[in-house]
Amino acid sequence: MIHHASHRTAYFEEHIMSQTETKRVAIVTGASRGIGAEIARRLARDGFAVAVNYASSAKEADAIVAELREAGGAALAVKADVANADDVRRMFATVEAQLGPVDALVNNAGVLKAVPLADTSDALYDQTFGINVRGTFNTLREAAARMNNGGRIVNFSSTTLALNMPGYAIYNATKAAVEAFTHVFAKELRGRGITVNAVAPGPVATSLFLDGKTDEQIATFSKMPPLERLGQPDDIASVVAFLVGPDAGWVNGQVLRANGGIA
Ligand code: NAP
Q1: What pLDDT digit, counting tens, does each position of 208-220 carry?
Q2: Which residues line ligand 1 (CB under 6 A)?
Q3: CATH number for the domain that contains residue 66
């Protein structure tokens, strides 16, 4: 069929633009690899336009975006250190300008270095609290002012908080703070129709978990859940998809442990 130029414009406006306009918009922090990258893939499949946030891994983030676009999705790589409030403000502004106002915020970016409390340096303490706690605070504060009513927020805790293993004092303290934010913020958003929940994964086979562990340590962790395996990123992405999707509309202020039954 031969389209006249004006018909092509009309066709574009009616079909293509309306498709992008009706897409819900999600920001996934720390989506250049690991669990965040899998969440970005899953939310794109579920029809979200996805902002793939990263702090330093530009190549990896660009590759995820290219993959999502190739599959027909709308996606955008956005560099922002979540620990930096100005970066986070800029990230929201960029996403709003290019994809539209935000419907779902997934606060996945996080770091872990297991070190006994007595051996923890000031720098490691500041970095862990900066990214895990201040990073979540920065995006939540921005979301309060800017997110669409009816939106969904998913924060990231960890099952380590329930296990009290040596070496996890600082990390667990950051995740306890994230859980506290989750419970209170859910109530502070009264009237907006926005839910705020957290996911607390058990061990998941990503670089955050695997790096620095011996094969023996990894095997021990793999045997901990009654389901006798490590989690995979898609085990967690599917839980996030549920929490940001239509079936979780009545779930609010909760922490959902996805860990194969460890705790
Ligand atoms: P990962 O593989 O190490 O990926 C972390 C992601 O966060 C990367 O994309 C990284 O990108 C990004 N990131 C790090 N610092 C950032 C910053 N300041 N600003 C923006 N992005 C930043 O980790 P993961 O295992 O997928 O973990 C994801 C979340 O799950 C974390 O909150 C973690 O605490 C939680 N979790 C993981 C496990 C597990 O066993 N893996 C268990 C429980 C909970 P750049 O390289 O660009 O910085």
Answers
A1: 999 999 999 999 9
A2: 29-36, 53-57, 81-83, 108-112, 131, 135, 156, 158, 201, 203-204, 206-209
A3: 3.40.50.720
